[in-house]
TrEMBL record:
GO terms for biological process: isoprenoid biosynthetic process. Residues 11-167 form the Diphosphomevalonate decarboxylase-like N-terminal domain. One of its GO terms (molecular function) is carboxy-lyase activity. Keywords: ATP-binding, Lipid biosynthesis, Lipid metabolism, Lyase, Nucleotide-binding. Transmembrane segments: none annotated. It comes from the Bacteria. This is Diphosphomevalonate decarboxylase. Residues 194-324 form the Mvd1 C-terminal domain.
């Protein structure tokens, strides 16, 4: 096949148990589990043609992005063993997000998972061999992991794990594993409001953050904690115990930031308004008994998580008490999602 085009839409995810620290070929130092989002997605189109000298062109939302093009080139070159055909073509890749930059949503997870799915569809087009769905998704998760660890989990709907654990025999370091069929009904449409405290670029990249764990004095204690919280979270997702759910996600969020604050060099990524919002969330929970909890990624923005049935009361709380702490009063509403979907423009000749 001389040329063709494929496209996928893939979501971001929010980690409930954080992956922080990696080794070898993008392997995690501890297992993680995440909730796939519904509204925060990347839409990626990959066109391939006969190999030219400039073999990768990448545009994000209509503008050429040389840094990400270089990242894709590195990924493709590293995949020669698994997919020799990648080096035989040139690529024009375009991508766009449904969410703004620097908002506490993992754009690399959605972008790299969408790209991995495009690669798998391209391979099917070129070879004429169609994989079974489970095999296709597992391969896409494997490829996505090599681009961004958390991207491996975005391949699956609802909830997914990544990283070996004695608590879940199906879990693997090589790819994520779906967990959706085990979850309690309360978690099937769980809400995630992303509170935008600051949209400024983070002081430390995720890659650099993972690197801080290599000589961290509390690294082993963190991995032990993560393994324990991972096992506990799998039980919570099955049982629907919201008090325990809140306790674990908040413990994970604050542990992640604590690790960065006492690493060398040290980073403080929470802002004063992050801390004030956390206090108000806890006060609201104690006063109303509404099971609303928070988590954070490696930045200042808050993911406010709660059952869908409490949306009206939480909306009122956010608008009345939290909005003034947010940049331009902005927050994004999301919830448990249904995973990636192919965009039907694929073809080749």
């Amino acid at each position: 096949m001389k040329k063709g085009i494929v496209a996928w839409e893939s979501p971001s995810n929010i980690a409930l148990i954080k992956y922080w620290g990696k080794m070898g070929r993008q392997y995690p130092c501890n297992p993680s589990v995440s909730m796939t989002l519904k509204n925060a997605v990347s839409r990626t189109q990959l066109s391939f043609s006969e190999r030219k000298e400039k073999w990768i062109n990448f545009e994000f939302e209509g503008k050429e992005n040389l840094d990400f093009a270089k990242r894709i080139e590195t990924l493709f070159e590293g995949l020669n063993e698994e997919l020799l055909l990648l080096s035989q073509y040139s690529y024009s890749i375009t991508s766009e997000n449904t969410f703004p930059h620097s908002t506490g949503i993992a754009s690399s997870a959605s972008a790299m998972s969408a790209l991995a799915l495009c690669i798998c569809s391209m391979e099917e087009l070129i070879t004429g061999k169609k994989l079974e769905r489970d095999e296709f998704l597992q391969k896409a998760s494997f490829l996505a992991r090599l681009g961004s660890g958390s991207a491996s989990r975005s391949i699956y709907e609802s909830y997914a794990t990544w990283g070996k654990s004695s608590a879940f025999s199906k879990a693997s370091d090589d790819y994520a594993t779906p967990f959706s069929k085990y979850i309690h009904p309360i978690f099937k449409d769980y809400q995630d409001y992303i509170l935008l405290v600051s949209s400024k670029k983070k002081k430390v990249s995720s890659t650099a953050g993972h690197g801080l764990m290599k000589n961290h004095p509390f690294a082993q204690a963190r991995y032990d904690q993560a393994n324990s919280n991972f096992e506990r979270m799998l039980g919570i997702l099955r049982s629907g115990d919201l008090d325990d759910f809140i306790e674990v996600i908040e413990n994970e969020a604050l542990s992640l930031h604590g690790l960065m604050m006492n690493s060398t060099p040290s980073f403080t990524l929470m802002k004063p308004n992050t801390l004030e919002a956390i206090e108000l969330i806890r006060e609201f929970r104690n006063e109303t008994k509404i099971p609303v909890g928070f988590t954070l990624d490696a930045g200042p923005n808050i993911h406010l998580m709660f059952p869908k049935k409490d949306s009206v009361k939480v909306d009122a709380f956010v608008n009345k008490q939290l909005k003034e702490l947010l940049e331009d009063g902005r927050y994004l509403k999301d919830e448990t999602g249904f995973g990636p979907k192919q965009i039907n423009i694929s073809g080749g000749e």
